[in-house]
Queue: 4 jobs
Job 1
Amino acid sequence: MKKVFVVLLVVLSQQLWAQFVVTGRVVDAESGQPLSNVQIVVTGSSSGGITNDQGVFSVRSEVKKGTLQFAFVGYQAKFLSFSFSEKPSLNLGLVQLSSQIVSLDEVTISAGLADRSMDPVSVTEIDSKTIRRQLNDKPLPLLFNTTPGVYSTTSGGGSGDAVLTIRGFKQDNIGLLLNGVPVNGVENGLVYWSNWQGLTDASAIIQIQKGPGVANMAANAVGGSVNIVTYNADKPKGGNFAYQITSYGNQKISLALNSGKMLNGWNISFLGSYENGSG
């Protein structure tokens, strides 16, 4: 009796710890290309695995009958039943997954301004009336001299040339943004203000942010940032013409036209300016 008991114990132990292996290869149903990193799970258990670079998988199962679930991003989930007979291994061959179109909600990206009541940074805003009243024929950065911590002066001798510092940081550490989009030089982060002279006529508001922050953050905006937001298309139909001359001979002519809201719902705005003088 003692010998029989030992034999039965060994048989029960082997059946208790026996594991079955399901193998196969996962491919795209249309192209036939192998799919890697497909998640495979034996439903109702913690057993599973993923496919390799060739789409091959090998999953161990503690049950003789069950269902495999195949899941992969962009593809429809697939369920395959398996059943073992005498052999502890089973090859499912090619498993084809069909692609699935996933529709996403609409995403709107718009230019934004830092909210002074929400952002823990120092922010100054300059509206269009202040720009027209104080800027005149000066380069744009000189308008910021009334802002604490900001200093600007003319440089280079050409019309519109200027340098800007915020809290001691030079221009290569200050981000210039146009409607929230960085426009600093890619190579060195500098800004040639003479290239943006006509921008002041189209500026609705300018926001100066001192110090780095989450809002209006350009790649080089360690010292701060200047975000220039332009006008939207105005609905009223009309336009204006302006002529400006300085005591040292600089002249500026600007023309603004707006179509108003047309029958097709569109609105077209035009703004052009011409400057001439000795600098």
Job 2
Amino acid sequence: MRIFLMITHDPELRQYRNRELVDRLRTRDVRSLVLAPGQIVVSARSSRLTALGPAGFPIEDALILNALYRTNLADLDLIRILETAGHPIVNRADAWYVASVKALTGARLAAAGLPHPPTLASPGISQVLESEAASFRGWVVAKPWSGARPGPTRRYRSRQAAPAYRRRRRRGQPALLQEFVPNPGRSIRTIVVGQEVIGACHVLARKPEWRPSAAPNARAVRCEVTPPLEDLALAATRVVGLDIAGVDLIEGPDGLELLGLCAWPDYERYDRVVGTDVAGRIVDFLVSRHPLFPPSQ
């Protein structure tokens, strides 16, 4: 029997994005199974890899959605092992990892020639890093190296950025410094499903704030999906290799710039603001475009 398996850190379906998706699958009569990574065992015996679920039953003919949202390398390795076993995976492990590591995301975007704020990445702080950071225009933003969810950020004047960050950072913490992009006080979030942009919204701070999306009580309003916005969101998703992604952009003096991607975006409020059934569109992608499911479904 064909089933849909979602591997998530939220097997109890407390989160809106997971709960809505399972509800939509149920309405399409698609059998679904939701498991945490620790509930799966992979058995390697006699040149055969078998994924085992609770009670030891084999997981076969399963289309697997990588819906992880915590950066846990062992959990991500499990996804890689399932890929090795031949299971079809939506949001493969390597793409998920690139999206979660901001330094890697920036490197992929820059290598593809996509607009992205100038960024410096290093495991440590050196004179070269200090010199390069001082050459940035205006302000410099210190960001966490990795993380599937937004982490703490700080802003410094460019010439003081590296020395100030050196004093504040934890021992052994890598450095990720990015030139601040002057903006109209809002960012843009789009969601891409199967190389299709399904709406966009502005995230606005209620008061002047240099980080609109991180401002307390930030609000979302619908945003027009212009051709440049659509092209950038799709290009970024292709470059990173994701099937489903949240893509964050900012409107800078030189036009749109990409800030980052999220491999399993939270779309609570987004679907209501944009007027799109995000969970339904994801199910459409999973059911109609994957070879495990016949076209009739």
Job 3
Amino acid sequence: MDKEQAKFILRSFRPDGADVDDRDFAEALALAMENRELGEWLAQERAFDASFANALASVTLPETLRHDILGCLAGERGDFPQAEDEVDAAMIGALASVQPPAQLRREILTAMERSSSAAFPPKSLWWRLALPTAAAAGVALAFTLTQNAGEKPSAVNAGRVPVDVVQAGFIRAYQSPLFSLDETRDDHGELIDHLKSRKLPCPGCLPPGLVGVKSIGCRELVIDGKRGSLVCFDESENGVVHLVIFRREDVDGELPARDHPTFSQEGHWATARWEDERHVFILFGATDVHRLASLF
């Protein structure tokens, strides 16, 4: 066994030491004891796993989180159940009227804790290594079956995207750990040239408070199959502000002109929405509405 093979096996070594006596790990652990570099790697790996597990355990999830997520996903995809006849309507109505007991979630979690504390024989190393592969294969199969289940595209992808979905889509993209800018330049004109070369919508007349403000960068935003642009500015009073631009024909929703934008506060995000003949604009700032409004 070489170091790379040992690392592959030891990545499944649980940080609480539960696998110390597992014979599947014996040779890899022995090599880690003999090889200083491998031993240091294992110590760092276990420390990271332990801190990650503690971080997850410290998170308190709202009781309605699952329901809220599924509701948002259903609303964005437009896949709320549609009754095709009176029987469907009666069934949907009956299911919608069902209210689970108030203590149901707590009882389920308590039962899960009791089950997890029971003594079960440990799974073999190879079973644990094969589980992620099997899960990935299952996801791929489900995706394939879903894609082939019907030829009719969803209403959202086939038509216009609601402006609320565009706003939520930017926030999700920005908060993703994979978020990055396609171009990072402080010259606004160079960013416009880049967007034009990609055939992406470009900002026309900026709010007065952004004229002459130093740019940070730009990138493409794809939300429900519609291509838009993001341009970021470093504004002295409001910090970094983000301007999202989509073509008018791609977005559903009536918006005012730039001189009278619609302002709202979504958590720590203040937003301003407006439109012109060709584009829809949403300006985001991690500030309050009154400070964002000072840019107009």
Job 4
Amino acid sequence: MDIELIKTFLEVKDCRHFGKAAENLYLTQAAISTRIRQLERYFGVTLFQRSRNNIQLTLAGERLVPHAENMLNTLRMAKQDVALASEQVAQISIAGTPNTWDVYIHDAISKIYIDQPHISLVAEILSREQLTRQLLERTLDVAILFDPPKVEELKIESLHMFKLIPVTTFQNQITSPAEVKRYIMIDWGTSFINWHAKEVTGISIPAIRTSTARIALDLMLQCGGSAYLPDMLAKPFIEQGKFFEINSLPTFERELFSAFHKENENEERLIEIRNLLRKEEPEAPAIMISR
């Protein structure tokens, strides 16, 4: 089977649109359709339910997704292992959920890159479900996330406690949640969502919902808006007079965790990595504050 068919299937699954998948893969829409038909013929099933403006996975398509992801991941790991074998370079894979990249992983990767030059790093952004599955399959060494899985085979360690503060680009005084303008809802994990629903009542329906601080930050700086951001990320913009803390709204403390398999073959290397991850306070990525 052509692995490109699998890549195309996953791209269509993510986009739910043949045209967008074609743009992302630099192909024509006709080529995307042909690849999906080839894959459907191979398995003898229909993978997508197609309508004019809506594409949904069939039950067969849903069942193919984890196998397709595993195929690509296994192939990627095989290529890396073969390439590294002759140089005897240790490879460590680190991944996190989207909401951890800008506030922690970016800085952590930089420190590991400088401190451990002989390690070949693989850094990815994955969903919580993908992180758990790859940890259990031992194709991922370290996961960084806000809501760690409760699985016996995995060891969970606390990395850092973030303070999420409400900030806005508007200078007018805000005395109640109802006065917050252009609110952007950032997904800081399950406990934050539950707390937000109870403690920040009356706030307007979010203009945007996103899983990354970077998207919220860009929108706020370009168009104006309000959001809950980590204090270390918001502080430089507050000092520059671009953001203003909303003192009438409550703050929230969010704990960040690392997860790894208890029987990981890279255990000695992981001890060094974990110590480095906990070594210093995280800093906001320079690319996000030099504006």
